[in-house]
């Protein structure tokens, strides 16, 4: 099943405006269940574009962009608005709060990190005993989350309360060919989805879901897919690139993905076996349009596709992610080129979806 | 039926890549059912019986998929690293042969990690018989199934993928043998069971049955120093009471037991402490479905040499056929 490149096709532009939007998205604080700040940015973009949208009972933003024609394939794209972070669980006075992780966080990454608390992003720090005072044996062990505190200082102690969120306090920045920021997982997907709405191909009905609560178990996407009833779905996410050289010089064979190798197409992760027809479609499009892509190493992890594909009578699904180093830490790094190719690959792939895409 | 089982186990169909097995079933059942369709996830849904009769909408489910492996990395010397699809035991894999969907064969080897403990999967590799990355006939993301010949030991059958091709064979036979049923019977051949009963969840939503029954294998307690479990090969189909994912509807269990007694079919009652079946997904679909499972006792499950008793297989067909011929009152 060959495809022919559409001569007039152009990838949606990722320029200064789009990078500025990503910056705003990355800098916003929105842990799972408290996605307001990101939802606001999404809504203002959607409204200015004039698309039909609704906010479902769990807080997903569901946008419909109809194509030209009747009974077009209904294609759901999902990007999650939430990020991993912290929730304050006990007020110990003087601006000190104990906390718990929301989503997958490594306790070894936390001590000494600056954080923003609450929707107003009050500055704080995750405190730990400094090296001057620790013993050798203390330094051999990881400090568990239970022994760490978020320190807001006494003057801000009344501005936070138990149940408030905290996120890493990392300002987005450009580093040559790279972008660095917190929560690029999955604000990149959110930014991509906004661009795809603004440049929606006319051969499909595009159903765009900005989902909530992905990081704690793909919960928002589950109800979004039930409501949208698409014919097929693509999750747009960010996946770890563990592509650094090994410390002992041995071959790194568990890199998951690599930076600069293009968007990562999923074949299998813990939650989903991608539909082989959609994997083949994406690869064909990548080859025809000469857009670089990589196959993500099959293995663990999961995306919104994990809950989408099992909804109702089954929804053929696949995920495509931007590779990013240091995900779920204070600062992740992605390549601008990978993002551009991600947007290009998805847009081109959508432009070639028709009734035959799911023919066996 | 032995030939049918032999044909089925020899087809490669790891989870997510069940197309060849499905096509075999489609061909084999042609003319024996009233309707047949493939749903969006690849489940094969067949139907037989009166649509608006006095009976129930009954969903029978047997899964097409088997456990397998998937390539994660090709190294410069032509070895493929891999991870598992479904519950593959590392201890069963060293020395095992695999077959990729494109026909490439390979053998699983391991790094010299010592033989006193079980080597983890990430220290194993697939050797497909080439010496350079550029010569590799497979790539990252390609899946393979285990490969092992079918052995007919007379009373007992040995093969890879008896889990659940033997269930598929039983379901095919049921659909063929059912002639006068008051029920609207859906024979559903599901996908992606081994990775978390995913296909059955979608299929059950589509079928929307009044009663759901999985047909799958279960473990036994009849081998040397086996974990205590009152299921043995050769003592009849096992009527599932409970497993680690589901409690069978007691009405379904009673209905099955009564049917077995009436037809003088030997049976055993099954309590499985590790593992589950498609019935788990069917039971909690939509507003809930009374569900149960007829299990075929099987030794060495998820190894390349699983073993079932042929009479248990035949009796499973008998049990379900005679149950479905009559009205059902739960």
Give the rounded overall mean pLDDT of chain A: 95
Structural class of chain A: alpha+beta
Spatial order of the strands forming the largest sheet of chain A:
1-2-12-3-13-16-14-15
Beta-strand percent range of chain B:
25-35%
Major sheet size, sense and barrel closure of chain A: 8 strands, mixed
How many angstroms does the end-to-end distance of chain B come to? 31 Å
Shape of chain B: globular
When the domains of chain A are counted, the total is: 2
Low-confidence stretches of chain A: none
β-strand number of chain A: 17
- Strand-residue fraction of chain A? 15-25%
Q: Please, how many helices of chain B? A: 7
What top-tier CATH class of the largest domain in chain B fits best?
Alpha Beta
CATH class of the largest domain in chain A: Alpha Beta
Query: What is the terminal separation of chain A in angstroms?
Result: 11 Å
User: How helix-rich are the residues of chain B, as a percent range?
Assistant: 10-25%
Structural class, from helix and strand content of chain B? alpha+beta
């Amino acid at each position: 099943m060959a495809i022919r490149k559409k001569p007039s096709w152009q990838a949606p532009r990722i320029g200064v405006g789009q990078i500025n939007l990503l910056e705003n998205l990355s800098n916003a604080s929105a842990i799972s269940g408290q996605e307001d700040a990101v939802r606001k940015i999404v809504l203002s973009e959607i409204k200015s574009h004039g698309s039909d949208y609704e906010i479902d009972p769990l807080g997903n933003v569901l946008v419909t962009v109809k194509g030209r024609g009747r009974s077009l394939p209904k294609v759901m794209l999902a990007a999650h608005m939430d990020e991993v972070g912290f929730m304050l669980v006990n007020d110990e006075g003087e601006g000190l709060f104990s906390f718990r992780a929301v989503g997958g966080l490594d306790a070894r990454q936390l001590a000494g990190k600056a954080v923003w608390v609450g929707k107003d992003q009050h500055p704080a720090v995750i405190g730990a005993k400094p090296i001057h005072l620790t013993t050798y044996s203390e330094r051999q062990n990881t400090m568990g989350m239970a022994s760490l505190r978020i320190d807001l200082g006494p003057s801000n102690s009344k501005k936070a309360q138990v149940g408030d969120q905290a996120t890493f306090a990392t300002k987005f920045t450009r580093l040559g060919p790279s972008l660095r920021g917190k929560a690029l997982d999955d604000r990149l997907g959110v930014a991509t989805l906004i661009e795809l709405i603004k440049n929606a191909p006319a051969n499909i009905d595009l159903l765009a879901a900005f989902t909530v609560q992905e990081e704690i178990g793909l919960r928002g996407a589950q109800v979004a897919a039930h409501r949208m009833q698409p014919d097929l779905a693509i999750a747009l996410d960010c996946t770890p690139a563990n592509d650094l050289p090994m410390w002992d010089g041995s071959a790194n064979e568990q890199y998951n993905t690599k930076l600069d190798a293009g968007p990562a197409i999923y074949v299998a992760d813990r939650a989903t076996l991608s539909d082989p027809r959609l994997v083949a479609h994406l690869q064909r499009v990548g080859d025809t349009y000469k857009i670089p892509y990589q196959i993500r190493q099959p293995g663990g992890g999961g995306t919104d596709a994990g809950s989408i594909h099992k909804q109702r009578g089954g929804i053929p699904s696949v995920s495509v992610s931007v590779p990013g180093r240091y995900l779920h830490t204070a600062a992740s790094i992605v390549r601008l080129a990978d993002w551009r190719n991600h947007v290009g690959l998805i847009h081109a792939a959508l432009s070639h979806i028709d009734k035959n895409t799911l023919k066996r | 039926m032995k030939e049918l089982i032999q044909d089925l186990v020899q087809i490669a169909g790891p989870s997510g890549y069940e197309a060849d097995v499905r096509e075999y079933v489609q061909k084999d059942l042609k003319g024996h059912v009233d309707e047949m369709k493939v749903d969006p996830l690849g489940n094969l849904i067949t139907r037989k019986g009166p649509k608006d009769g006095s009976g129930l909408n009954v969903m029978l489910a047997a899964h097409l998929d088997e456990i397998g492996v998937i390539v994660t990395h090709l190294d410069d010397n032509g070895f493929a690293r891999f991870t598992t699809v479904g519950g593959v035991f590392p201890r069963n894999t060293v020395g095992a042969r695999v077959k990729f969907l494109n026909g490439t064969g390979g053998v699983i080897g391991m790094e010299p990690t010592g033989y006193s403990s079980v080597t983890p999967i990430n220290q194993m590799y697939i050797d497909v018989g080439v010496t350079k990355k550029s010569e590799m006939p497979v790539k990252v993301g390609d899946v393979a199934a285990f490969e092992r010949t079918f052995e007919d030991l007379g009373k007992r059958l040995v093969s890879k993928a008896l889990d659940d091709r033997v269930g598929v064979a039983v379901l095919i036979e049921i659909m063929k043998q059912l002639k006068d049923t008051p029920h609207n019977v859906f024979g559903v051949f599901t996908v992606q069971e081994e990775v978390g009963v995913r296909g059955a969840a979608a299929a059950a939503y589509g079928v929307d049955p009044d009663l759901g029954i999985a047909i799958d294998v279960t473990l036994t307690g009849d081998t040397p120093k086996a974990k205590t479990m009152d299921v043995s090969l050769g003592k009849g189909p096992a009527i599932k009471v409970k497993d680690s994912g589901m409690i069978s509807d007691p009405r379904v269990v009673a209905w099955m037991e009564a049917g077995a007694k009436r037809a003088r079919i030997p049976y055993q009652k099954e309590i499985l402490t590790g593992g589950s079946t498609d019935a788990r997904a069917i039971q909690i679909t939509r507003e809930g479905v009374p569900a149960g499972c007829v299990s075929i006792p099987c030794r060495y499950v998820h190894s390349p040499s699983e073993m079932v008793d042929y009479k248990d297989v035949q009796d499973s067909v008998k049990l379900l056929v005679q149950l479905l011929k009559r009205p059902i009152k739960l």
